Amino acid sequence: MIVKGKLHIWLLLPTIITLVVITIFPLIYAVDVSLRDYSLAGGKQVHNYNNFKNFGYVLSDPEFYNSLWVTFKFSGLCLIIQLSLGFGLALLFSQPNYKLEPISMLIFLPMAIAPVVIGLVFRWFYSAEVGIIGYMLENIGIKPPSWSGNSTAALFSVVIADIWEWTPYVFLICMAGLRSIQEEIYEAANIDGATAWKRLRYITLPLMKPTIIIVLMLRAIPALKEFDKIFIITDGGPGISTESTSLYIFKQFIWFNNLGTATAAALLLLIGIIIISQVLFFYLRRQEKW
After folding, report:
1. Is the pTM of this model over 0.90?
2. Which CATH number fits domain 63-255+262-289: 3.40.640.10, 1.10.3720.10, 1.20.920.10, 3.20.20.70?
3. Per-residue model confidence as pLDDT tens digits over 45-84
4. Domain residue spans in the chain?
5. What does the alpha-carbon distance between residue 222 and residue 229 come to, in Å, rounded to a whole number?
6. Taking the CA of residue 224 as centre, how many other CA atoms within 13 Å lie in the half-sphere pointing to its CB?
7. Short-list 168, 270, 257, 260, CA closest to 219
């Protein structure tokens, strides 16, 4: 028989057990592995502690810092372009003359496709032999870039794929934010003679700040962890010019069979994501207080 005063503990117990099993235990195990000489190349071994040797290796590896730089470039470009396009489309479709319902399925279709499939489709688009993008550019007199041979073009090839996939998600959240703004505020501004630009600058943008921060938070974390599309479209090439941190971790684990080093790099990436998340949470709480 459950004691009435302890009922809340029993109700929380399934959640606590789930949290321990899928989050806390794997994290503790990952920390333990990152502190050992844990290689999968030599069969069954004794994995001794190595006094943070794995972290020292990762932090002294230029390839790791290159992967961080690629990750931040990729994430920054995706966030800026997705937020600009998503917010712009939300402003456009929030006008009374535009009806979203007839094309809503087409707008949200990319979100329903697996990232692996998107990577394969865009890899075919960028193909030098049968790629539709190169064919269309040649028809209008533009020489298509060497997507796999130029580092800048290779990075943008992945950015374009991510923009196509996730701009509808940003658009959806921005639409919800715009519809939460009371119409009376705009009506009062119209009575005062405010132009469209002033309404956008002094009403819409200030009131949309919490929504924009939420968008950045929801999109920054997946972008910093991006692996699927980069692996399929460029495989980190040319060279390591598009090798994200997730791909660096994958190489340490699969190519070099060093689980300790890969786990150390993954934990460093996790720390970076937590710091960025907390910064965004801090600004979100400030906006809520205002």
Report:
1. no
2. 1.10.3720.10
3. 667 888 889 999 999 999 999 999 999 999 999 999 999 9
4. 63-255+262-289
5. 12
6. 19
7. 168
